[in-house]
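Record type: monomer structure entry
Structure origin: computed from sequence
Chain ID: A
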Amino acid sequence: MEVLFHFLLELLKIAILASIYSTLLLLLFKTLGRYKPGSWFDRVSKKSIRLWFITGLIISILLFVFMFSYWGDHGLGDSARIPIGHGKAVDQVNGSMTYITAKGYEMETLDINEFATIDNFLFAKISSNRPAATNKEIAIWDLKTNQVEFLEHFSDLEAFKSKNSIKNQLLFQDFQYQYSIYWNGWRFWLLP
């Protein structure tokens, strides 16, 4: 039910965004048509209702397709998703279980708590409810190769960083914080 409700809200948002964008395009075409009489913009802008509906339809379709693309998919209902590059993403279900699906974990998930992404790596604190990794504290997901390396202690991160020439500071944040940083701002207002 949550997914259906969220999907309907996304369709409403797409309709509103498409109306705004097509109105802006109509105004642009009319302005260009005024400055260049007899041009293609002038001829097209004379049929403003038709132009508005056609551009609105095209923009709606494009926004709908984008909503299900890698960069536009942020989850529906009780699931949430953050794209992190190289076709990979961090997912969350029910606002509590954050996980990644890396090579070797296709049939199950690797549950994580806080994470940070730098260069081509995702550094994550492993969730304590995962039995296979109870003696490990950190998972490092190489986004290029899709391989996961485990570190026993948090202090082992400095050695890994120096081995891979990573100079940036790691700031581990929870999923809600990372989600709000990625999906708020211009993405929230201009995209579905």
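Annotation 1: The mean pLDDT is 89.
Annotation 2: The beta strands are 79-85, 88-93, 97-100, 110-118, 121-126, 138-142, 147-151.
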